[in-house]
Design a protein that fits this description.
Blueprint (H helix, E strand, L loop, with lengths): L1 E7 L7 E4 L3 E5 L6 H16 L2 H7 L3 H4 L9 H5 L14 E8 L2 E8 L13 E9 L8 E6 L2 E5 L6 E5 L8 H4 L7 H11 L2 E3 L29 H11 L2 H11 L4 E4 L5 E4 L7 E2 L5 H13 L7 E5 L10 H11 L4 E5 L3 H10 L3 E8 L2 E4 L13
Parallel strand pairs: 3-15, 3-16, 10-14, 14-15
Antiparallel strand pairs: 1-2, 1-4, 4-5, 5-6, 6-7, 7-8, 8-9, 11-12, 12-13, 16-17
Helix pairs in contact: 1-2, 1-6, 7-9, 9-10, 10-11
Length: 382
């Protein structure tokens, strides 16, 4: 389980640390930094996929994603005595992302490239990385370290540092090149964990959504990010997953309705009072979205971490309490992080379980959190 998330220099997240529990809700008004936190988690996952540089490019490049305010906002600036303006920098320009879990921690520092004769001169460079045991990076608990192009690993038997790369390209993470079953076993384990994080923010419910059409189905223990294989995912839960929990979840949300999957893996819902079931093409956007969320959250292969962005979209208020109960059920097998601005969902989750609610607010363009006593944190040095 992740116990701490740290982000520095990314959009409005000038310096944010969050303590995390099994079930977490990140909420706040529009523009407070919720989406930036969600994207920061995605970027961390992209590091393990080798896609972080490309993901930043898709957002407009490193310079477009960096904190746009001054390095420090003085008391005189906050009081209005002086205008907000740039000051002399104490540290390098950087975008830093990291997390600590119950056993390992990881952090990466991305910075501006050194000018060179290449068409890719706007690609950010990885300046530093570190992997450690325990909650906080220290001198004695780091076992993989990258500074510039130099990478070294600590020998598990002797405790001595050993050089692994002298010139690892600045666009390559050590998480892609150092993990192996011998010297880099822990790195390999951590990379696969990060690759297993599951994100849902693009579940389609429009009239042309693939989930509304018949499909060719194969066993599907993990719902696709857009929900395109809904029928196969539902049938997989019925055959090898929590079929009873799925049945209870649908009956709870839709007054005794039942689900079935047709011959061509088309989802059918039988509702009390109707003479025939409704196929997916006939369901409302909110009903279909709830079915998609149920298929994602009741996966027979639950991830260590699942992150959902605004799961309440298109849902009628009457479905928020059932959704909260569904999320609580899923949190028994996976750590859940929910990004939502729906106060009703936050309150429903608070009623249903011991939920960690993290309120975001923005002051002088900078995101702040409601948490007190956040975990200590240290970044790897360049």
């Amino acid at each position: 389980m992740l116990t701490c998330l740290a982000v520095s220099g990314y959009r409005s997240l000038r310096d944010v640390r969050l303590g995390l529990g099994p079930l977490n809700v990140i909420t706040g008004p529009n523009g407070s930094g919720k989406s930036s936190l969600y994207r920061a988690l995605r970027l961390l996952s992209d590091v393990a996929q080798g896609r972080a540089i490309g993901s930043l490019a898709a957002e407009g490049g490193l310079e477009s994603t960096l904190w746009a305010g001054p390095e420090k906002i003085s008391r005189d600036m906050r009081s209005g005595r002086f205008p907000v303006q740039g000051t002399r920098r104490d540290g390098p320009v950087s975008l830093r992302l990291g997390f600590a879990s119950e056993d390992f921690g990881y952090a990466i520092d991305l910075g501006l490239p050194i000018p060179s004769l290449t068409r890719f001169s706007h690609d950010p460079e990885i300046k530093a990385e570190s992997v450690w045991t325990g909650q906080m990076l220290g001198r004695s608990n780091s076992f993989a370290d990258r500074n510039g192009q130099r990478v070294r690993l600590r020998n598990r038997s002797t405790g001595e540092w050993q050089a692994r790369f002298a010139e690892l390209p600045a666009y390559d993470s050590m998480m892609m090149h150092c993990p192996d079953a011998a010297d880099g076993h822990e790195l390999l384990l951590l990379r696969e964990r990060m690759r297993g994080w599951r994100f849902y923010d693009d579940l389609r419910t429009d009239r042309d959504a693939p989930a509304r059409r018949p499909q060719i189905g194969t066993r599907t223990p993990v719902l696709a990010s857009d929900g395109s294989d809904l029928g196969a995912a539902i049938q997989t839960i019925v055959e090898i997953g929590a079929a009873d929990t799925l049945r209870e979840t649908i009956a709870d949300a839709f007054d005794g309705a039942t689900l079935a999957v047709g011959a061509r893996f088309e989802v059918e819902m039988q509702q009390p009072g109707l003479l025939r079931p409704l196929v997916a093409a006939e369901l409302s956007d909110g009903t279909l979205r709830y079915l998609l969320l149920a298929a994602a959250l009741l996966s027979p292969r639950p991830p260590e971490l699942m992150i959902l962005n605004e799961p309440e979209a298109s849902l009628h208020p009457d479905l928020l309490d059932p959704l909260a109960r569904l999320l609580v059920t899923a949190s028994r097998h996976s750590q859940i992080i929910i990004v939502s601005h729906a106060r009703a969902l936050v309150e429903a989750l608070d009623r249903a379980a011991d939920t960690l609610v993290i309120e975001l607010r923005k002051e002088w363009g900078e995101t702040h959190t409601s948490q007190v006593g956040v975990p200590d944190w240290a970044w790897p040095k360049r």
